[in-house]
Amino acid sequence: MTLLDGIKVKKELLNELKNKIDTKNIKPSLAVIQIGNDSASNIYIKNKEKTAINLGCKFEHIKFKEDCTEKEILDKIDELNNNNDVDGILVQMPIPKHLNEKTIQNRIISTKDVDGLTDINVGKLINNKKCLVSCTPQGIIKLLEESGVSIPGKNVVIVGRSKLVGKPLISLFLNNDATVTVCHSKTNNLKEFTKNADILVVAVGKKHLITEDMVKKDSVVIDVGINRIDGKLYGDVDYENVKNKVSLITPVPGGVGPMTVAMLLCNVNTVYKNLNNK
Ligand code: NAP
């Protein structure tokens, strides 16, 4: 077994990006809107801010109270859309229940949508057109590429069909000529699918859902799950027992997670280049 090391690949990607930013003497900027005070969101935003600032990017953290109106958020997004000093815009999820997630996400102009969640970017991805792609799925493909895993012709099984991870992954793998199967909570006999996977991606949110008997020998396993139990992090894959059967596997933490923030900053830089014709 070899580790698919997200921390190492993240460092390499960000070093490369920092060199470009320093050489060109530019300052791409990212604006993050937070609604409410979700504790996990606070950690994720701090992480994004730290990474952005270390790279030499501008970072703006815009906070709204839990009981704010949808109009206040939409007005702020309009303002950021029209502000030439702002490149990437994202709204940190989850947002309070009284707000419409789709309406808010789609208000971000697609050219600044660094989370790749607007209908325009999702549609372009399905049609294999150039677009901003959701960061976690993009990070998974990058991690495989950087680790020398060839995708064309591979039998890929994705467990989970969320719009953030599973669905964009379907298009990314198909666009890379893989044969793709998608499983979800209504799939009968999950093991029959997972044990045939050359590349298995699990994005469910259930500790150790995937056990040793469910994976194919010498396959590649990508564990997206983050399950925080009694202050400890667990993936969706029973890592200790699966690792000796497969050829490559991501640890949790230290696999997919670091790639997500790296791809976000890559997206911010792409937006800067596109908006400034560089
Ligand atoms: P989500 O929106 O809750 O979706 C979970 C998916 O898993 C759904 O499609 C669901 O099926 C499916 N599912 C639930 N139980 C299942 C079962 N027993 N067997 C097979 N499929 C099952 O979750 P998400 O946003 O994609 O996140 C998934 C996990 O990844 C979470 O732990 C999250 O914290 C983590 N995550 C990590 C990163 C990172 O950067 N590392 C980024 C995003 C998410 P249905 O569609 O039928 O309900």
Summed up:
The chain is of the alpha/beta class.
Descriptive overview:
The chain has 278 residues and is α/β, with parallel strands linked by helices. 41% of the residues lie in helices and 17% in strands. The strands form three sheets. It has a six-stranded parallel sheet with strand order 1-11-8-7-5-6. Strands 3-2-4 form a three-stranded parallel sheet, sandwiched between helices. Strands 9-10 form a two-stranded antiparallel sheet. α2 links the parallel β2 and β3 (58-64). The longest helix has 20 residues, at 256-275. The termini are far apart. The model has no long low-confidence stretch (mean pLDDT 97). Bound molecules: NADP nicotinamide-adenine-dinucleotide phosphate (NAP). Residues 136, 159-162, 164-166, 183-187, 190, 203-206, 209, 224-227, 256-257, 260 line the site of NADP nicotinamide-adenine-dinucleotide phosphate (NAP). The site of NADP nicotinamide-adenine-dinucleotide phosphate has 26 residues, from α10.
Tags for this entry?
278 residues; binds NADP nicotinamide-adenine-dinucleotide phosphate; six-stranded parallel sheet
Secondary-structure blueprint:
Elements: E1 2-3, H1 6-24, E2 29-35, H2 39-55, E3 58-64, H3 70-81, E4 88-91, H4 101-107, H5 119-126, H6 135-146, E5 155-159, H7 166-175, E6 179-183, H8 190-194, E7 199-202, E8 220-223, E9 227-229, E10 232-234, H9 239-242, E11 248-249, H10 256-275
Parallel strand pairs: 1-11, 2-3, 2-4, 5-6, 5-7, 7-8, 8-11
Antiparallel strand pairs: 9-10
Helix pairs in contact: 1-10, 2-10, 6-10
Bound molecules: NADP nicotinamide-adenine-dinucleotide phosphate (NAP).
NADP nicotinamide-adenine-dinucleotide phosphate binds near residues 185, 190 and 256.
